[in-house]
Amino acid sequence: xxxxxxxxxxxxxxxxxxxxxxxxxxxxxxxxxxxxxxxxxxxxxxxxxxxxxxxxxxxxxxxxxxxxxxxxxxxxxxxxxxxxxxxxxxxxxxxxxxxxxxxxxxxxxxxxxxxxxxxxxxxxxxxxxxxxxxxxxxxxxxxxxxxxxxxxxxxxxxxxxxxxxxxxxxxxxxxxxxxxxxxxxxxxxxxxxxxxxxxxxxxxxxxxxxxxxxxxxxxxxxxxxxxxxxxxxxxxxxxxxxxxxxxxxxxxxxxxxxxxxxxxxxxxxxxxxxxxxxxxxxxxxxxxxxxxxxxxxxxxxxxxxxxxxxxxxxxxxxxxxxxxxxxxxxxxxxxxxxxxxxxxxxxxxxxxxxxxxxxxxxxxxxxxxxxxxxxxxxxxxxxxxxxxxxxxxxxxxxxxxxxxxxxxxxxxxxxxxxxxxxxxxxxxxxxxxxxxxxxxxxxxxxxxxxxxxxxxxxxxxxxxxxx
Length: 467
What we know:
Elements: E1 8-14, E2 20-25, E3 31-36, E4 40-45, E5 51-56, E6 62-67, E7 74-78, E8 82-86, E9 94-98, E10 104-109, E11 115-120, E12 124-129, E13 134-140, E14 146-151, E15 157-162, E16 166-171, E17 176-182, E18 188-193, E19 199-204, E20 209-213, E21 218-223, E22 230-235, E23 241-246, E24 251-255, E25 260-265, E26 272-277, E27 283-288, E28 292-297, H1 305-315, E29 317-318, E30 340-344, H2 346-349, E31 360-364, H3 393-404, H4 407-411, H5 415-466
Parallel strand pairs: 5-31, 25-30
Antiparallel strand pairs: 1-28, 2-3, 3-4, 4-5, 6-7, 7-8, 8-9, 10-11, 11-12, 12-13, 14-15, 15-16, 16-17, 18-19, 19-20, 20-21, 22-23, 23-24, 24-25, 26-27, 27-28, 29-30
């Protein structure tokens, strides 16, 4: 039976036509930005008269998105090898940051909003000035694709993870790697700092979530709660909880003070690729390969922590095997041991998940903008998505409704044929992504082969000189 303290699904959002790769809330939690393999950035207005705005500009899949701390800018990363800075308004102004030579996997603001960090398949991490919109410096030590890079809360450190199976900590002042954690069991897909900046959490391709203490250079906790790779994690602002998103189709909420799993959330049909808490922690959002964005209400953070703990001890039930919990450095649980957890399934707990999708207004990227260094957040006021163009409101509504709801009438295509065409387009997107990955792996193989041939030639020359 559902409890008032359990997280619940508020509503799903459907507007993307391919997998949702990133989700991010703005500062007041009233707006949600999402990125997708369909090449679009979308901004969802979450308050009354829900509306969606689709920003067009990237030439390939968008892999990551984040709001600046003040909510005035949006940053996106893409497989088109660029980072874009957007002003999330009706004009669609954006600036392109070029410098990477391969797909950009992630982008993130520093906590003061002055800097951006991006991670790429070109094995580099790049730091940009958000105001001057130019590259400041690059970090090179990873030997394989870099999946993610994040600033610490104080901005002095950067954490990065790569397919070379390492997690590295960088000092932004002297631009050097100051620490490195190796995980021989697999590589991390995602990494982030906890709110206090003392620990980092990593999402592993080997189904694990790990917490590392960067002061003691020590693994603190090791969770095996998923049955497939973990793609993303997000800390609750209190630092007491961690939510994880996995290819096994579930979200899981970990109680970090007790060191245990407390919730397993279902709702996505397929892998869950992204998840993020709002700044206040009262909501969180998840994005999946099913092209859906799910908005959730947290609830469990609204009461005293001791009350929540008593409540869970009283009502948890047994999960299905195999085991869902394995915490290091405590003694490991056997695979046939039954563990306690609370399952939340929207199909049972939410009466109406078929909420009508909001109308979508498409906004094409316009000319670049400039932000001088001495401009304050007060000087950056622009019409936000929530109060856009009142004079053209009715026209926008008509356009969005005709674009989203009346496509069949405009084109004369039957609904069944339209659905079939959409499915074909989705499959083509998947094929395009697969080809892109194969091309990148081929390039990597060629580089390795070239390196081996060069080393072989050097060894032959040395052998001849010795003779």
